Amino acid sequence: MHANQIKSSNPQITATAQGTVWEIHVSGSWRMDEPWPHSADAALNGLEGNGIQRLRLTAGDLGAWDTGLLAFLVEAVKRARSCGIPVDTSLPDGLQRLIHLAFAVPAKAGAARTKKHTGFIARLGSAVLDILPGMTDFLTFLGDVTLAHGRFFTGKTHMRWQDFMAAMHECGVRALPIISITSLLFGLILAFVGAVQLTQFGAQIYVAGLVGIGMLRVMGAVMVGVVMSGRVGAAYAALIGTMQVNEEIDALATLGLAPIDFLVLPRILALTLMVPLLTLYADIMGIVGGFAVAVFMLGLSPPEYINATVQMVPFKHLLIGLIYATVFGVVIGLAGCYHGMRCGRSAQAVGQATTTAVVHSIVGIIIMTAIITVICNVLQV
């Protein structure tokens, strides 16, 4: 017989090799908030020694203990079973029953969560396969919104007018400060960029036409669309997504109220009406920015700049800009409300829906800008 003593302070572990039996004796106080003794690793690793054919667990002089002691004993039993070593226990009845319960039901195969690493091709294929279901779901949502508009024009909608007015105030009046700053600065930038080349030829007067056509035809609408995507589209996705998490949308359906009529319709209508009006305001602020550059830096007089703007900017550019703005309002409303309605039931899902709504709104604005521009070129307008 040979013995190898491994001792530790409170809590204590004594591991002894007695022939082919590896005996682990525990004593002292064991608490979950205290680490295992340093001798715990040596006691567990001793099961892998040569000639060890049995594990014996014993306890004595135990003080206060909790699941910290149970966790160590369960780990010892698991280590022994992995080595194919039978286990004998001489423990208090409470510990015996807890260890028996710990191994009463074996773990189900495949139940443990494993991290799977997929390659680039697999991820790409999965993304492609998800396109068709995603498009189908969006077209379903678009059809519901279209039917809701039909109920609105026939007077059968559940939409509340106070919600519509509140949405108009949110995406209209409260957006004026940020629209003012961005449009004014963009008009300044546009005038500066044009002046760099035009002043070389003494054609500073054409800055008025450059700023006027650029703002009225497309840039005013694009600037408003991008700002509203980040400000209003994200807010709609977050608001409706939070209602989805709190099961408020389910409550509306239970009460017989169509969630599309109640939540989506007033917001899309408000954006469709307010984005063109904000675009008109943004056009004016952009022209004011160009006016400041032309008068204070290029030496033009105010009447010269105003007359040049009137003569060089046809009215059709204003109408085309309003068409851009109306389409952008619909895109922002659809993206924000769609991702809010399809939000998952967790706080993380709300954040993801908000981010995705902003990204899809901006991408949709860029795509629709390209489509309308091509159509205008084909029609020569």
What descriptors fit this protein?
4 strands, disordered N terminus, 12 helices, 67% helix, 381 residues, Transcription Regulator spoIIAA, alpha/beta, elongated, single chain, four-stranded mixed β-sheet
What would you note in describing this structure?
With 381 residues, this protein is an alpha/beta fold. The protein has 2 domains: 12-102, Transcription Regulator spoIIAA (2-Layer Sandwich); 144-379, no CATH class. It is 67% helix and 9% strand. It has a 4-stranded mixed β-sheet, with helices on one face. Helix 5 (161-171) packs parallel to helix 9. The chain is elongated, with a radius of gyration of 36 Å.
Secondary structural class:
alpha/beta
Query: What percentage of residues falls in helices of 4 or more residues?
Result: 55-70%
Mean pLDDT: 87
What distance lies between the first and last C-alpha atoms, to the nearest angstrom? 102 Å
Order of helices and strands: EEHEHEHHHHHHHHHH
* Major sheet details: 4 strands, mixed
The number of helical segments is: 12
Shape designation: elongated
Number of strands: 4
**Estimated share of beta-strand residues:** 5-15%
Q: What is Rg?
A: 36 Å
Number of domains: 2
- How do the strands of the widest beta sheet line up side by side? 1-2-3-4
Low-confidence stretches: 1-8
Question: How would you briefly describe this protein structure?
Answer:
With 381 residues, the protein is α/β, with parallel strands linked by helices. The protein is built from twelve helices and four strands.
